[in-house]
Amino acid sequence: MKTISLVSRACKSGIVVLCILTLVAPAFGQGQITYPFDSNIQLDEPVGYPYGININRSGVNSGWAREYSFTVNSTGKLFAFGAYLNTNNELRYGYIGGNSTESSVHTSPWMTFRPDGNVGIGVNYSNYKLDVNGDINTSGSYKVEGREFVKLSNENFNTMIGINSGTVDGIGYRNTFLGYNAGKSNYLATENGYSNTFVGSTAGVNSQSAYYNTFLGSYAGESNVKGSQNVFLGALAGRYIDYANGSGESNNNVFLGYQAGFYTAVGSGNVFIGRASGAGYFHTEKGEEVNKDANVSIYNTAIGDMAGLYHNSGNYNVFLGAMAGRENRTGERNVFIGYAAGSNENIQNISHRLYIENSSSEIPLIYGEFDKNKVGINTNSVPDGYAFAVKGKAIMEGVKVELSGDGTGVWPDYVFSDNYKLKSLAEVEEFVRENRHLPEIPSAKEVEQNGIDVAEMDAKLLQKVEELTLYLIEQNKKMEIFEKTVKSLQEENRQLRQEVSELKGKQ
Question: Does residue 190 contact residue 175 with C-beta atoms inside 8 Å?
């Protein structure tokens, strides 16, 4: 075996060490070392020399210099290190290339290095610290200033982008976390949260075994631990969900808007749409310290800017409209419809109420009591025993009154029964003279004090009409008898007159 060696004191036996080789190559093809395939070259560094290998390509003022290359069997297929100079004989970039002809290796290099530190892969001139032309395949994570920024989990199909976002160490799968601290607590190896999408700084930061959640916005769903199938869209939306006990499960909520459902600590099936809708602000003490023992609600719907703003507990409420039901805090089964409907302080703790209004007036346009089946128009006071109240005049094209049951004892057909005791006209005359109104009909004073029942009054009036009909029938009978009597008397009178006339004629 043939060996060509340039050896100094630093060389170690048995090792091929490239230490120092200075070649002066005045022209292409010169200054080469050629050796047989089965030969070895050993280079070592002399004492005091600063380079391991120094290859000097002289006579180049601009363009490319293939300083060091490997060629296989003189095929023109090579692997080369080189430099490319500008017209001032200054280094423009260094390159690594190959599998090309000598004259073109610098125009399509594998990698380039600029004096300013820019690196290119697949480009011949990089304008960025790293410039890549082509696809990148990676495993593990990307770091920014030593901190993980992008983490990919091929095994569990997780995608995490942002400092402290999620982790690949847990057993959760099919999660997508984007933003600083997004899904951070997914690192717990014992938790298996899956199919969550958290986008925004600190979005879903405490979620562990939760699943099918979508949190979009800074701090959206921040305190959620195990709640699932929630949708929070907007900065701070659902921020303190699950905050009350840290281990509850608040599921199937939809919070849409800035601070929507902000202080809803425990609850399920709620729908809040609009800025600060269903925020539950009342339970705040200092700054943003939420009352940890409150804000528990389910199946509430709030749509509109600050709708249900101070509501913190109570279930099955509907707040529809900007500031609708804003002051209601602990009520249940309420419906507030319209701008500021039910936003006055007198409705803080009411339940089972209906408010339809377009202002904060205490008396709404339409008021209702679901638990008592009452409705009022322009009034919030419906007397006991009544289902409907209207304050003000009403005009309508028709009214139909239906009697409960068969109407027996209410509608005055009983007047025509055989056992009905009809007052005599003399009795009626005496009553009217003393009371100045018909029997069984309220006086003007009573009507002023108590009003009238339309159905009852219609029945009473019909009763009097029917009684009057009986009086007329009775009078008609008397008139018929009177007429017969008169006719009989007339006939007798005629006969008497005829007899008198005949007597006078005989005289």
Answer: no
- Joined together, the tokens standing for residue 269 give 């099936």
- Per-residue pLDDT at 243 exceeds 80: no
Report the side by side order of strands in the sheet with 78-85. Answer: 63-71, 78-85, 91-98, 111-113, 119-121, 130-132
Whole-angstrom distance, CA of residue 253 vs CA of residue 278: 12
pTM for the whole thing?
Answer: 0.60
Asked if the model's pLDDT at residue 345 lies above 90, the reply is no
C-alpha–C-alpha distance, residues 200 and 317, integer Å = 30
For 318-432, strand residue ranges (E) read 318-320, 335-337, 353-356, 366-369, 374-377, 388-390
Cβ-proximal residues to 199 (8 Å cutoff; 6+ apart), any chain = 176, 177, 178, 179, 182, 215, 216, 217
Place of tokens 């290190």: 81
How far apart are alpha carbons 422 and 471 in whole angstroms?
A: 9
Residue 110 and residue 97: Cα distance in Å, rounded?
A: 5
Among 41-55, 100-114, 184-198, 409-423, the range scoring the smallest mean pLDDT is 41-55
